[in-house]
Design brief:
Blueprint: E1 4-8, E2 18-19, H1 25-34, H2 36-50, H3 52-79, H4 84-94, H5 130-141, E3 148-153, E4 157-162, E5 172-178, E6 184-190, E7 202-207, E8 212-216, E9 219-220, E10 227-229, E11 232-238, E12 241-246, E13 255-260, E14 267-272, E15 277-281, E16 286-291, E17 306-311, E18 318-323, E19 327-332, E20 341-344, E21 349-354, E22 361-366, E23 370-375, E24 391-394, E25 402-405, E26 412-416, E27 422-426, E28 432-437, E29 444-449, E30 456-461, E31 467-470, H6 475-481
Parallel strand pairs: 2-9
Antiparallel strand pairs: 1-3, 3-4, 4-5, 6-7, 7-8, 8-10, 11-12, 13-14, 14-15, 15-16, 17-18, 18-19, 19-20, 21-22, 22-23, 23-24, 25-26, 26-27, 27-28, 29-30, 30-31
């Protein structure tokens, strides 16, 4: 499955990513000390334990099948006239005991060892095309200026290349993988210069573990992240009890949502199943602020996880968070002790997004298939007040797992759902659905507009294959928003 998608802006990636240096002895020791490998092994063992009964019965079936096949093979041999003696004779003829030994004077593939030696590499015909092979390999990993790059969170993070989105015959392929220790749940691209210079090119990954890892996208085959936020320092097991020690400021459960602050480029917000929202300084790898925004006393017995976070595009110190406590909370990061502003909603929050065209509007998608819009100008710090939504849509038949605004076209949003559908909505005047599509991705978990090519929508879901939707292929979208399109048309899916 594809749990999350992040576009990388054009022109940011190195045209030829650097190959990672092998880890030093000190780095290997640090990896071993970190317990990452032990954590991975434990999770694999837990999965194996859960499936042991199923596997055992499966193995019994396979054994019975193998025995019956062997029995059938014996019967067929007898029918064909084969006897143990004839099989023995055949094996003797092959002389398998001396298979690896060669007789002196026997020449294989040539007239002798002289053909295997050349005075120089230039004379060796098998090495003449070596430079061509190297150039072809470099060409395969070269990222062209017109290529679009997408990071997909799957069993490992994949860096996908969409060749020239303005071309009708665009090709899409996996450029390289980033191997991570736990299943990824969310991603956020950021350009904070963690390694010096003016800008960097990194992907932050939240997973089933409490650690947030930040990987350098300009390095291939790297074995360690460039930075880690939080995580486990030590695990101890005494009998059936486990004792876990976390880094200072760390989440203590899965990280479900990430949001990078484009104005304060070293700042990253995270949402977690531990009910907390945290604000991190990625440059120093420290947690600056921890907020308990969602502690509804009426729902204490329920799993009140925080699912999503988002920074306001116009007031970058303002952060939204949405939770399974049926609420959205807005806070100013400069005054985290303030209770903030709260909007009740009619279900568990799956996703939320600020309008990039105005500072006072945001939308929320819910597990009951509803989408709700709010105007913060109607907010009140009075906890007893119930601010009314700007609109409410019954958008899908199942949970609306993802919702995004188009950064170029005002009032255009897209929704993706567990009902396997992706829909486009026009929020101007009376909100209405203008297009819908089953992208054959299975249950949809993540969608994202390309800012470089705004009529290309990337879609990820349960089937694990990245899909693309060319919005301009829909007549209604082209009629309404064609004036925003570039002269060149994005690719079809």
């Amino acid at each position: 499955m594809i749990a999350a998608i992040s576009w990388v802006p054009k022109g940011v990636l190195k045209s030829v990513p650097t190959a990672a240096e092998p880890p030093s002895k000190e780095e290997i020791e640090e990896i071993l000390k970190s317990g990452v490998l032990e954590t991975r092994e434990e999770s694999e063992n837990e999965e194996n334990d859960e499936n042991m009964d199923v596997d055992a019965s499966k193995q019994d079936d396979e054994l019975a099948h193998a025995l019956s096949a062997a029995n059938a093979l014996g019967k067929s041999s007898k029918r064909s006239g084969a006897t143990p003696d004839s099989l023995t004779d055949a094996l003797k003829e092959l002389d398998m005991d001396n298979y690896d030994e060669e007789d002196d004077g026997v020449e294989i593939f040539g007239s002798g060892l002289a053909n295997l030696y050349y005075a120089s590499n230039d004379m060796d015909p098998y090495l003449k095309d070596k430079d061509d092979d190297d150039s072809e390999e470099e060409e395969d990993i070269t990222i062209k200026p017109d290529d679009a790059v997408i990071v997909c969170a799957r069993n490992e993070d994949d860096v996908w290349i969409l060749e020239d989105p303005t071309s009708s015959d665009s090709n899409m392929y996996v450029h390289h993988d980033i191997i991570i220790p736990a299943f990824p749940l969310c991603t956020a691209w950021l350009d904070c210069p963690l390694k010096g210079g003016e800008k960097g090119n990194f992907i932050a990954v939240g997973s089933m573990e409490p650690t947030i890892e930040i990987w350098d996208l300009d390095i291939m085959d790297e074995v360690q992240p460039s930075a880690t936020l939080g995580g486990i320092v030590e695990k101890k097991k005494k009998g059936k009890k486990k004792s876990i020690k976390y880094k200072d400021g760390s989440h203590t459960d899965s990280v479900l949502g990430l949001a990078w602050n484009k104005e304060y480029r070293n700042i990253l917000a995270s949402a977690s199943a531990d009910k907390l929202v945290k604000i991190w300084d990625v440059a120093t790898e420290t947690c600056n602020i921890t907020m308990e925004n969602h502690t509804d006393k009426a729902r204490l017995n329920q799993n009140i996880i925080v699912q999503a976070v988002a920074w306001n595009h116009f007031a970058p110190q303002v952060l939204l968070s949405g939770s399974f406590d049926h609420s959205v909370v807005m806070k100013d990061g400069r005054i985290p002790s303030h209770s903030g502003f709260r909007w009740p909603v009619a279900g568990d929050v799956e996703s939320l997004a600020w309008d990039p065209h105005t500072e006072h509007s945001f939308v929320v998608s819910l597990e009951n298939g509803m989408v709700t819009g709010f105007d913060i100008r109607a907010a009140s710090s009075d906890s007893s007040s119930q601010p009314k939504p700007s609109f409410t849509l019954h958008a899908h038949d199942k949970a609306v797992s993802t919702i995004v605004y188009n950064a170029t076209v005002p009032n255009l949003i897209a929704t993706g759902s567990m009902d396997k559908m992706v829909k486009l909505w026009d929020l101007s005047n009376q909100p209405s659905c203008i297009a819908s599509k089953n992208p054959k991705a299975g249950a949809v978990f993540s969608i994202s507009f390309s800012e470089d090519c705004p009529f290309t929508l990337a879609i990820g879901g349960a089937k694990g294959k990245l899909q693309m939707w060319d919005l301009l292929s829909d007549d209604e979208v082209a009629r309404r928003y064609g004036k925003y399109a570039n002269r060149a048309k994005p690719p079809t899916s």
